[in-house]
Amino acid sequence: MPPLDDLAFFQQLARAGSLTATARELGLSLSAVSKRLKQLEARLGVALATRTTRRLTLTAEGELYLARGGAILEELVELEETLADHRAELSGPLRINATFGFGRRHVAPLLSAFCRRHPRLEAALELTNFPVSLADQGFDIGIRVGEPPDSRLVARRILSNRRVLCASPAYVAAMPPLDSPADLVAHPCLVLRENASDYALWRFERREGPREERAVKVGGPLASNDGEVIRRLARDGHGVALRSWWDVHEDLAAGRLVEVLPGWRGVRADFHAVYDQRRHVPLRIRAFIAYLEQEMVGRVPPVARPTTTGESPT
């Protein structure tokens, strides 16, 4: 069996993509990294990569060594984590990715409480505008809206959620008629910009009767790339917003916002904790996801039926 440190070295080399980047990450000289790669190739009797100081390209043998070596290292990690699971105290790294709004409001305080219970954890929460690849960025858990399209990920629902069409009571009192999703073209819609488009595509489904879905292109004079800004603009009476229940349920309960278009509702947008599919999932990952499932129930009430347009919610 080849030395494990050689496998780990080559994994890091391939991930860094160049001799220079590897030397920088390991705190070694460029010549030392180059010499170690040559020694590894001499021992194996094959060329693993063609390289310059700026770029590394794996040979077919290098690709095989990377893939099989990675599997060996992963099995070793799983073995050690299985042994660690027999200890009562959780420990080790826990890296989580979530979007800014949901991550700040809910994931951060729950992670804080969880780490207070398990002080030997080394946790990191990274917030981004958009979800990132767990494998590429080295995250253990991602918090996502909707089922993940990647079949290699396992999804556990931590919160039932829907989009809610809402506006301020002042706007509702003076707004043009709004009886179907198509009527939104006559309203200033507060668009959450997630790309360079000048409009958003809002999706609805009929509340009662035969299943029917509608998608409407909407736009308006005010937009933002931040959901909290959109919620504030809606509360200030600038137009209609389509926001998640978790984000606006307190404003609806307090009467700062009113749900409109009661015959229709936004489509489901449940939150899931996702993680890579593997034979052994470390206990710290399973325990934190179970904690999210348990605690989120108390943080966000179930989605309520809307009041009649213009009526203050109870």
List keywords for this structure.
single chain, 314 residues, alpha+beta, Arc Repressor Mutant, subunit A, D-Maltodextrin-Binding Protein, domain 2, 3 domains, five-stranded mixed sheet, three-stranded antiparallel sheet, 40% helix, 23% strand, disordered C terminus
Structure, described:
This protein has 314 residues and is α+β, with helices and mostly antiparallel strands. It has 10 helices and 15 strands. The strands form 5 sheets. It has a 5-stranded mixed β-sheet with strand order 4-3-5-15-6, covered by helices on one side. A 3-stranded antiparallel β-sheet has the order 12-7-13. A 3-stranded antiparallel β-sheet has the order 10-9-14, with no helix packed on it. Strand 9 (200-206) and strand 10 (213-218) form a beta hairpin. Helix 1 (4-16) packs across helix 4 (60-85), helix 2 (19-26) crosses helix 3 and helix 5 packs across helix 10 (283-299). The protein is elongated, with a radius of gyration of 25 Å.
List the helices and strands and how they pair.
Blueprint: H1 4-16, H2 19-26, H3 30-44, E1 49-51, E2 56-58, H4 60-85, E3 92-99, H5 100-117, E4 121-128, H6 134-137, E5 141-145, E6 153-159, E7 163-167, H7 169-174, E8 191-192, E9 200-206, E10 213-218, E11 223-224, H8 227-235, E12 241-244, H9 245-254, E13 258-259, E14 264-266, E15 271-276, H10 283-299
Parallel strand pairs: 3-4, 3-5, 8-11
Antiparallel strand pairs: 1-2, 5-15, 6-15, 7-12, 7-13, 9-10, 9-14
In short:
It contains ten helices and 15 strands.
